[in-house]
Amino acid sequence: MTTSKSHKEMQLSEDKKLLHRFGYAQELLRDMGGFSNFAISFSIISILTGAVSLYGHGLTYGGTGMMGFGWPLVALFCMLVAASMAELASAIPTAGALYHWASLLGSKRWGWYTAWINLIGQIGIVAGIDYSVALFADGLLSPVLGYQMTETSTLILFALVLLSHGILNHVGIRIVARLNDFSAWYHIAVVLILVVSLAFLGNRPLQPIDTLFRLGETFSDKPYWLAFLIGLLQAQWTFTGYDASAHTIEETINPRVRAPWGIFSSVAFSFVAGMVMLAFVTLSVHDVKAAVSAENPFIYVISQALGTTFGQTILWLIVLAMWFCGLSSITSFSRMVYAFARDNGMPRSDWFARISKRYRTPVPAIWLSVILSFILALVDYFIKMANPNTTYTTLAFLTGVSVVGLYVSYGIPIWLRLAAESKGRFTPRHLGPWNLGKWGKPIAVAALMWIVLISVVMVIPPNQNAGIALVAMMLILLVMDLAYYRDHFPGPQAALRVSAEELARREAELGG
């Protein structure tokens, strides 16, 4: 025990020295192990959130073939993106993550835009996840309590879910880290329960396996090739948020190894577990058209396959998994806000960079994450009140914003790494212990090609409102940059000028 404790203390000392080399004090509590770092990304990816909440979207546009072909296609390319990001996390292990990578590989302005684009994506992913919790909970509660499910009732539940996540993240990283660890095991357990139930306890036998690979079926007004691409939103949104392992890197022990593995393995494990789950769910569908026509296709399929009582029990287990997913997402979002504010990249940076002396958490950043996520859903709520005949869903809007925002922010530092490499500014000696060797460049190129494709596909009709929202946000960023930040943003490089005495003072204030 003494040897183990001594080894941990030595590792923490090394981690602190590494962070000092990048000009930052150890202000956050570094208490996450490798599994905890993996768990936060695995919980945010949450196959029981993305694949489930957008199951009807995938089925509507791509039919059952979306599960057999769409899911592995997206997973393969997302693993390439994750591998490229993992390399950069190992090379530059700071909580600023994507934003710091872009700043150091390109310029501070590249970093500034990357940070804001990532924040836009983070707003969308938190809103999308917690809205999924509210949507499913509302659908399950309304028939039991005898009220009519409406946009308003869902929005109220959404606000309550966000509030619960804000409070828990406020209280402390130790509680959240333990819940994230539990969440990872919980996700695996619920997937196993769902799969075993559908395989052996279903009301009817499963469909033939070739049902999963049936192409040409769509319930939209689009030609199948286009409908299939639109349907990829189901899988593509699921595989988002794994940059959380990089955002919590300053809270992770031995970060140059454990955080990269957290990024990559969370995508790989989600691919396999999600494929198994979607296979059994889809093989349980005996009337695809009826499922697509249902108010919530996934609830319909599970209720038909397992019966009302048992089916609803399983569905409530899934809702809790979604809740865990949202909890982890707020953690990731708030760390990005904190890291960016620490470098004076946003209005009232002095406030949002504050750390609670009692809880060692970035409290103002946590509550900003909650408020901005609620506002995004609230904007969509008012749009629908003004235009009640709109055909897109709120969830498709929120998830479209998150996919494009996050993946563009993933792509910028990957592209800048290739540019820096071609100019000799980024060489093998800059890589960390987790690297792809000679495969780094071709994998990065393939990852960028995929990001360009899905950034277009995710905002074409009927989800064009997501594209409009993203363009509006980018115009606001442009005005902010040209009006002030172009001349006043110091960039993370400014942190390299912080003295050793200043670093020690900051840590002493927090008892670090």
UniProtKB/TrEMBL annotation:
Pfam families: AA_permease_2 (PF13520). Signal peptide: none annotated. Keywords: Membrane, Transmembrane, Transmembrane helix, Transport. Its main location: membrane. It is a multi-pass membrane protein. GO terms for molecular function: transmembrane transporter activity. GO terms for cellular component: membrane. It is found in: Membrane. The chain crosses the membrane at residues 38-57, 69-89, 110-134, 154-177, 184-203, 223-242, 263-283, 314-341, 362-383, 395-418, 439-460, 466-485. InterPro entries: AA/rel_permease1. Coiled coil: none annotated. This is Amino acid transporter.
